Amino acid sequence: MTSSAPTPAYRRLSVEERRSQLLDAALGLFAHRVPEDVSLDDVAEAAGVSRPLVYRYFPGGKQQLYEAALRSAADELRHCFDEPHEGPLLSRLGRALDRYLAFVDQHDAGFSALLQGGSVVGTSRTTAIVDGVRRAAAEHILRHLDATDPGPRLRMTVRVWITAVEAASLIWLDEGKQPPLDELRDWLVDQFAAVLTATAARDPQTAALVHALAGDV
């Protein structure tokens, strides 16, 4: 006897769909393993395709695939701080951090290698991609501060805080994801308020912003 159940029709993926499939597979692997431990065979197996097909879409091999995956992750992280300009500033910052830290949590052990340039396959291009995320986050925060023409002290304060967020995220992973994410988020928000206050003591522009934001809680 033969089964009367219909055979699922094979659907050929478009170029963009196939490329997205391969990037998703690569990101899934990089989420839990550093790039040095991920091979093109691993990506092909995770995507359910052949190794030659991976090369067809990424003829530059593993380096090209890694950089493309990094750009995909960077695009997602850029949107983390793209919070609507509504409600109190610190509440907005908290929601942005919730998205950022959820990304860190999801990508787990691969976060350092994937986003912080901690990989032997890193190049000047990968460094530029990661730095672009930091700069985009800083620009989002400065817009939330309504700083139309931020001076060097204010810009430095924001960028230093973003570096602190990255460092805290890596330490959080190293410490077994403790404290809980909501505590980490609140601590980082408090840190932001603290560094702004410290800069305000030396910078009139930041002092004016802190004064304007005093009732925005």
How is this structure best described in words?
The chain is mainly alpha-helical. The protein is built from ten helices and no strands. The longest helix has 23 residues, at 152-174. The chain has helices at 15-30, 40-47, 51-57, 62-78, 89-107, 111-115, 124-144, 152-174, 181-200, 204-213.
Helices, by number, come to 10
Gross geometry? elongated
Kindly name the structural category.
mainly alpha
Portion in beta strands: under 5%
Number of strands: 0
* Uncertain stretches: 1-10
Helix content: 55-70%
The residue-averaged pLDDT reads 84
| Biggest sheet descriptor | none
C-alpha-based Rg, rounded = 21 Å
Distance between the termini: 72 Å
Secondary-structure element string: HHHHHHHHHH
Question: What is this entry, summarized?
Answer:
With 217 residues, the chain is mainly alpha-helical. 67% of the residues lie in helices and 0% in strands.
Layout of helices and strands:
Elements: H1 15-30, H2 40-47, H3 51-57, H4 62-78, H5 89-107, H6 111-115, H7 124-144, H8 152-174, H9 181-200, H10 204-213
Helix pairs in contact: 1-2, 1-4, 2-3, 4-7, 5-9, 7-8, 8-9, 9-10
Protein name: TetR/AcrR family transcriptional regulator
Domain HTH tetR-type: 16-76
Organism: Streptomyces hintoniae
